[in-house]
Specification:
10 strands; alpha/beta; 27% strand; single chain; globular
């Protein structure tokens, strides 16, 4: 079998750097809009993946689906079978802190979670999933040079989109958590397990304190030109 149970690509089809939005249609939009010569390398279960070039350097973009179980399948297979070295989640989030607005960027330095996945992996101890510090610094420096505002701090990765605990938001907001997503804690733990690197950069599509929400179309088009800042930070601007 040249591929995996969930990815039909052959070895060598993926670059060492993979950008990973949740929505496979956003993966397609990012590949077509920002890469030269993009070619589709996966279509299994419509989880689209593309590999192309950015200023002559190879980069791949692949959807992850929603939630920690889904991203765990694809990240594991990319790290383990395709020898991907870096995965950067470029996803969406709900912001928690006052003053945050739709379209703001959040760089997740670490990710708390209500999922049991990390405890099962870490002998039932608490594990603190964190981004690769080198990737964090590279993106922050490049964003600052371009005048692109990014808020760096902790996020909370939840198994729930509609959380059943009415005090959940109040509790994590009081702890200074910047935003909620559904994938980063699992991605960061998998990267450490495989001795690879991971980072999450999130675009705010829901402002939880005010109830503001982005449209479905805006969610699919999240990031836009910011992707070029990310690619410059990670691949260098030669």
């Amino acid at each position: 079998m040249s591929g995996t149970p969930h990815i039909e690509a052959t070895k060598g089809d993926f670059a060492e750097l993979v950008l990973m939005p949740g929505d496979p249609l956003r993966a397609k939009a990012l590949a077509v809009g920002h890469l030269d010569k993009p070619r589709q390398v996966n279509g299994v279960r419509n989880m689209l993946a593309f590999t192309g070039e950015w200023k002559g350097k190879q980069v791949s973009v692949m959807g992850s689906g929603m939630g920690m179980p889904s991203i765990s399948i694809y990240a594991h297979e990319l790290f383990d079978h395709y020898d991907v070295q870096r995965i950067v989640r470029v996803g969406t989030c709900g912001s928690l802190q006052a003053g945050m607005q739709l379209g703001d960027l959040v760089l997740a330095t670490a990710a708390s979670t209500d999922s049991a996945m990390n405890r099962l992996r870490f002998r039932n101890w608490d594990y603190a999933p964190a981004a690769d510090n080198g990737l964090v610094q590279d993106v922050l420096k490049t964003a600052s040079r371009h005048g692109t505002p990014v808020r760096a701090g902790e996020v909370f990765s939840s198994d729930y989109f509609y959380h059943p605990d009415p005090q959940f938001i109040e509790t994590i907001t009081a702890m200074g958590i910047l935003a909620i997503d559904m994938e980063s804690a699992a991605l960061y733990s998998l990267a450490r397990h495989h001795q690879k690197k991971a980072l999450t950069l999130l675009s705010v599509t829901d402002v939880i304190p005010t109830g503001e929400q982005s449209s479905t179309q805006d969610r699919q088009q999240a990031f836009g030109a910011v992707i070029d800042v990310v690619l410059e930070a990670l691949l260098g601007d030669d």
